[in-house]
Amino acid sequence: MRKAFTFFLLGFIFAAGCGYTTHSVTFAEKTIFIKPVVNAIKIATEDSKYANYKTFPRLIENELTSALTREFNINGQLKVVNSGADALTLICTIKDYQKESLRYGSSDDVREQRLRLYVTMSLLSNHAATVVVTESEINKTGLVWGDVCDKFLKNGLGQQLDPGEVRLKPGWEDKKDEMAKVFGDDFNKILSLLQQSHTVKEKEVVGETTFFLTGASQKTETAAQVDLVDDTARRITEAVVEDW
Q1: Which of 12, 135, 188, 195 would bridge with 164, disulfide CB 3.0–4.6 Å?
Q2: Taking the complete model, does pTM exceed 0.85, yes or no?
Q3: Domain count for the chain
Q4: pLDDT at position 14, please?
Q5: Which of 90, 119, 75, 103 is nearest to 32 (CA)?
Q6: 160 and 106 in one domain?
Q7: pLDDT at 36
Q8: Averaged pLDDT for residues 209-228
């Protein structure tokens, strides 16, 4: 019995060691400007015919903006400021709100539901040392991401973070002559992109919560939306301050 427990404990330790770990990201900026969240949910769609089932909470973007401010203040790694001049800028857009039934009673009445909030977030930086070039930015210039990415990496100008992101190495501004030779006729497009506000991170975040419609722990959908907004704000804050 003791041997079996020992193997179980060792297996648990090794399994835990193979998981993902997080560590804090170090930014040149110590402050963050949170732009008002934009609600881009398209109400006038085919889903409107299910209006009695699928609802679109009003002013949820305002609630999420306030919740983000609270979460960053609690986290403390980045101070929330009212201007993005010398700060990181966080841009969030609500893309969808979904409600799903999880459990039914004997009379097919809904007992438990799950809410999900889909948000795209972009973190921008004006600081040269934190410049990240993304595939979406390159595509907007008309250049081919694969070619641009290869030139950054093969010439030691950047480090790949994800398949669609390359972080430029510190001091890239002193290597403009070298970059001009590497990119040739495309250099001006690249330089123009690098001299703008730059995307440090882009991610889709999905917040969620579940709630009961009956019993001692029952909640209204409106009350559950408060938990949903808080969970989404927490996930966005983690996506900003932590690196996987």
Answers
A1: 135
A2: no
A3: 2
A4: 42
A5: 90
A6: no
A7: 95
A8: 91
